[in-house]
Design brief:
Blueprint (H helix, E strand, L loop, with lengths): L8 H7 L11 H5 L7 H12 L7 H7 L7 H5 L6 H16 L3 H11 L1 H18 E4 L4 E4 L12 E2 L13 E2 L5 E5 L3 H5 L2 H14 L1 E4 L9 H6 L2 H18 L6 E3 L2 H14 L4 H11 L2 E3 H8 L2 H6 L7 E4 L3 H7 L3 H8 L3 E2 L14 H4 L3 H18 L3 E3 L3 H13 L5 E3 L1 H10 L2
Parallel strand pairs: 5-6, 5-7, 7-8, 9-10, 9-11, 11-12
Antiparallel strand pairs: 1-2, 2-3, 4-6
Helix pairs in contact: 1-3, 3-6, 10-22, 12-14, 13-14, 13-17, 15-18, 20-21
Bound molecules: iron/sulfur cluster (SF4) (2 copies).
Length: about 425
């Protein structure tokens, strides 16, 4: 498609040849088999909306909020129609017309104000045991009672006592020959702190200095997928201005999170399509933004270091996050690194979306996320692996809950954690 057409609902609708190839792979269609909740249906409705033939009423809102933004349809479409991107755009129209639910406004406020988030999460750490049952050595927690937006009988990530960014100095010297910055992401900062700790351990073994970039703010993906473009504008511009201050002093900004890296590397450019100066600044920065395993595999001797270590008798199955494989083409690097010391047992469809879907899907439409998680939990079990891995904390949260619902007892580890465990072995 022409670049100008990427956000044009009518142009997308006119180009759809109605072949239906996208329908069997569509995550929402597989749990809600209605033509209107399929890529072809979404595109048709969006064309009608732009033509003035469809009102953005509550039913249309409900339909457009049911897409998981997994990009399975874009991947398989013979002309790569950007269904996900036009749905992101219409969600901004929905937000303008209907506003945001109170809890989303509160959540996005916290994403914009990290200090308040730090304080609140610290309080959350203290009080989480009152409302939640802690599971698996504080990896996850189950609500003891039903809250308005958090359903009972589901597993959520627990909170750390101190955030990853607050637990370390900003500059970590590992020899001074090379230097990278780390973007950690909100779930890695507050919930899955071991990912950042493991990344620091790997950099230490490779003698690469780490700059923690403490003024980083949320990449803005949760707001982008919910249509809160005011929050995206604020967070993306803050991060771009901040990264520009140190980008020439580091080889790369590495991110152990698929969604955050795809947002900063790819979706900032999409978001700023109508603000050319900001788009150009985002594109320039994107050349130094990498997912952690991608950069480590392509630019360091990590594979040789791992080769010198013993093979472990542990089978790992690797789940491909949508924002890694489909958006960034990254699937070989994590597997190559993991396979040095672990046996990889592929699940039947590692590229199938886990069903996370974003803030709306995890709250108001949790029934869809829960249903979409069933096949993923089953294929993890069938793989026979004792560990499931993915370089994405959103996938981790969803997959842990899906396995909990299905009684599947498989441990989740980010590939960065698996690698660090090998290096730390004596
Ligand atoms: S992005 Fe995923 S859920 Fe949305 S229409 Fe495409 S395949 Fe379906
Ligand atoms: S695969 Fe592409 S062209 Fe075919 S129906 Fe789906 S969106 Fe239209």
């Amino acid at each position: 498609m022409q670049n100008n057409d990427l956000f044009n609902f009518k142009a997308t609708s006119d180009q759809c040849i109605k072949c239906g190839k996208c329908i069997p792979v569509c995550t929402i269609h597989n749990v809600n088999s209605d033509e209107v909740t399929s890529p072809r249906g979404f595109i048709d409705l969006l064309g009608a909306y732009q033509d003035g033939e469809l009102e953005l009423d509550k039913r249309a809102k409900d339909i457009f909020e049911s897409c998981f933004l997994c990009t399975n349809c874009v991947d398989i479409c013979p002309i790569s129609l950007p269904t996900d991107m036009i749905i992101e755009q219409v969600r901004n129209d929905i937000r303008k017309k209907y506003g945001l639910a109170w809890f989303k406004r509160g959540f996005f406020y916290l994403l914009r104000h990290r200090f308040t988030m730090d304080v609140l999460f610290k309080l959350g750490y203290v009080f989480q045991t009152c409302g939640f049952k802690i599971q698996k050595e504080i990896e996850s927690m189950e609500p003891r009672f039903s809250l308005p937006i958090i359903k009972k009988n589901r597993l959520l990530p627990s909170l750390g006592k101190t955030s990853f960014l607050n637990a370390h100095p900003e500059n970590i010297n590992n020899g001074g020959k090379r230097k990278v910055a780390i973007f950690i992401g909100c779930l890695g900062n507050y919930n899955y702190r071991q990912v950042g700790e493991s990344l620091l351990s790997i950099l230490k073994h490779l003698e690469i200095d780490a700059f923690l970039a403490k003024a980083q703010k949320c990449c803005s993906a949760p707001a982008y997928f919910t249509g809160d473009f005011n929050t995206v504008d604020y967070l993306a511009k803050h991060n771009i201005e901040y990264f520009e201050q140190f980008i020439d002093d580091v080889e790369a900004i590495i991110i152990p999170e698929a969604t955050c890296s795809a947002m900063i590397k790819i979706d900032y450019e999409h978001y700023f399509h109508d603000q050319p100066q900001w788009r150009d600044r985002a594109v320039k920065l994107s050349k130094k933004i990498f997912m952690a395993t991608q950069w480590l595999e392509d630019n360091t001797d990590l594979d040789k270091l791992l080769q010198s270590k013993d093979k472990r008798n542990i089978a790992v199955t690797y789940h491909d996050p949508c924002h890694a494989r489909k958006m960034q083409g990254i699937y070989e690097q994590p597997r190559r690194l993991i396979s040095k010391n672990y046996t990889i047992k592929e699940m039947s469809d590692p590229n199938a979306c886990c069903g996370f879907g974003g803030v709306t899907m995890q709250t108001e439409k949790y029934h869809f996320a829960k249903a979409a998680g069933v096949p993923k939990a089953a294929m993890i079990k069938q793989s026979g692996a004792s560990v499931v891995s993915a370089e994405c904390s959103a996938c981790r949260m969803q997959i842990n809950d899906s396995m909990y619902q299905a009684n599947v007892d498989v441990e989740f580890k980010n590939p960065i954690e698996l690698i660090a465990q090998v290096l730390e072995e004596r």
